[in-house]
Design a protein that fits this description.
Blueprint: H1 3-15, H2 26-44, E1 54-56, E2 64-65, E3 73-79, E4 84-87, E5 90-94, E6 101-105, E7 121-127, E8 132-140, E9 148-150, E10 152-155, H3 185-199, H4 205-223, E11 251-252
Antiparallel strand pairs: 1-10, 2-9, 3-8, 4-10, 5-6, 5-9, 6-11, 7-8
Helix pairs in contact: 1-2, 1-3, 2-3, 3-4
């Protein structure tokens, strides 16, 4: 649901009135803040990894090709999408012509010391806040120059636009068209109403908070079902604390590429 639809239902149920205010009403900005509070709650609950937030870097605007130096290990860096929250376990280089590809394992920073200078590996530096992430790839040779770089990643959720307008009105830039990844809008609506009732010292806020938690648990239940042998989040196969298995990259024309 777009935020405008969420606001209509939220405000109509909260006030018991079908006269819905517009984007310049103070209630609109308060609802944006309440909606973002609900999204943060959904995103951080129980360290849940939501299926809907796993994506490819290329889908988030990452558009780079590899460039190396002949017979010399080359460390090349790339700026990751601003929406990135956490990397997965491998980087894929794909030949744009033959579609052959190479998987390069991602290692943690403290594991770089154990890597051979000539061995292929990749790592990420940065954080999911304003600093963002940088991808570094250690690779050798020019035979893969021009190959497309891509990797799976866990992204930040889409928040409603709470940026204030510059006219001093206190209104926000949200125009009602934003759609977040939260699967159940009822959770957002109940959470928004709970927050608003709490602000007005209305004791019924507790019931709406309970309603929102029921919706949240339902989303967690649905997110946890599926095929246990094929989870979205990559397992730490070597139990060493790295993001993925420490296997040697290979080129193939078939298999489970991105």
């Amino acid at each position: 649901m777009q935020f405008g639809d969420i606001f209509n239902e939220y405000y109509g149920l909260f006030r018991g009135d079908n006269a819905i205010p517009g984007v310049t009403d103070p209630e609109w900005a308060l609802a944006v803040y309440g909606g973002n509070r609900a999204i943060r709650r959904w995103f951080n609950v129980d360290a849940e990894k939501w299926d809907v937030l796993w994506t490819l870097a290329s889908a988030e605007g990452f558009n780079y090709t590899y460039t190396g130096i002949a017979n010399v290990p080359t460390l090349v860096t790339y700026t990751c999408p601003s929406s990135m929250y956490e990397p997965a376990g491998f980087i894929q280089l794909t030949d744009p012509v033959s579609k052959s590809y190479i998987h390069i394992s991602v290692v943690k920073l403290n594991d770089i010391q154990f890597q051979s200078q000539a061995s292929p590996y990749a790592y990420f530096t940065g954080d999911p806040n304003n600093n963002g992430f940088t991808l570094s790839i250690n690779f050798q040779g020019t035979s893969n120059n021009g190959w497309i770089i891509d990797f799976p990643m866990y992204k930040q959720p889409t928040y409603f636009n709470a940026t204030l307008l510059t006219d001093g009105s206190g209104n926000v830039q949200e125009d009602g068209t934003t759609i977040t990844e939260v699967p159940d809008a009822s959770f957002i609506i109940a959470s928004m109403q709970g927050a608003r009732l709490f602000e007005t010292r209305n004791p019924f806020f507790q019931q709406r908070e309970k309603d929102s938690e029921v919706s949240l648990k339902g989303m967690q239940l649905k997110n946890g079902t599926g095929t246990p042998g094929n989870p979205w989040n990559l397992m730490d196969n070597n139990k060493s604390g790295s993001f993925g298995p420490s296997n040697t990259p290979s080129i193939t024309n078939s298999g489970f590429g991105l």
